[in-house]
From TrEMBL:
Tagged with keyword Repeat: yes
SUPFAM superfamilies from the UniProt entry: L domain-like
Source species of the chain: Thraustotheca clavata
The organism's taxonomic lineage, starting at the top: Eukaryota, Sar, Stramenopiles, Oomycota, Saprolegniomycetes
Name of the protein in its database record: LNR domain-containing protein
Superkingdom of this protein's organism: Eukaryota
Entry keyword set: Leucine-rich repeat, Repeat
Amino acid sequence: MAINCNKRFKYFDRLLFVRQSVCPGQCNLSIKPLFQTGCFCAYAHIHCNSSSNLEVLQPSIFSTRLTYLEIDHCDLPNGIPDGIIAPFTSLFALRILFSNMTTYNSPNLPSTLTFLEIRYSQLQTVPNVIAATLPPQLIYLALDGNYIHDIPISTLQSWKQLNVLHLSETQIGDTTFDNIVQTLPSLNELSLHHTNITKIPPRLIEMSAVQTVFLSSNQIQGVVPVGVSGFIDLSCNPLVVLSGLPSAVTFDNSLLYCSGNQCSPRLLANNLCDVPCNLAKFGWDNGACASYNG
């Protein structure tokens, strides 16, 4: 028997309508399971200000099915308290931006976590919560915008499961860069723009899995390297170009991008809020910083 699709969709429209409930304003995306009422938030963005803080993050309000949590401008000197994050047992992604975090000594993060960002904090060392072990499914780690100057070898060895590592806008130097390349040869993406790097480790060329390397706005000198298997951004570095650049190399030293804060054009396309690009002339990082300004 043929199914009348129009009638079926009209039925589901009515069903969804009677199940709808209002999620809090901090819920940017919700799911609506059949025959269940209440808010089932999938993506929550908590922007702390005088009228909102982490106390609103309750499983009774957002449900325990929360999978993507973004937090910015919150008072988190010691990281997110365990009691707040523990109920969300399906958490896939956690983003903490523009915090006063100096430590994060929680005994563990959710085992379901695949994506972790702690960007623009007051960290001076890798926080204990990820210094010796990572959640078993974590493959993306970003620790950008802090005062970290070194990553111990033992920590790097515990990060071998990572596909993506971002340590941009930190105090990382040549020794740590070399250790990363040597210890984590299977990385797909590495971001070290705006650090203290002055040279490129020869072994970078041997990283066959690497697809993208961001090294703009450093003090890398010499000749633009060739032979890297993936894309590499070397903009805003005092390098010398001897001949035509390989298509995989971006090298833009124009005043537009390399004066003042220095914002490589590639950073404008990475869909992340990068503080050096958070300027009116760059459209507040092509809009990536808009939700954090104000």
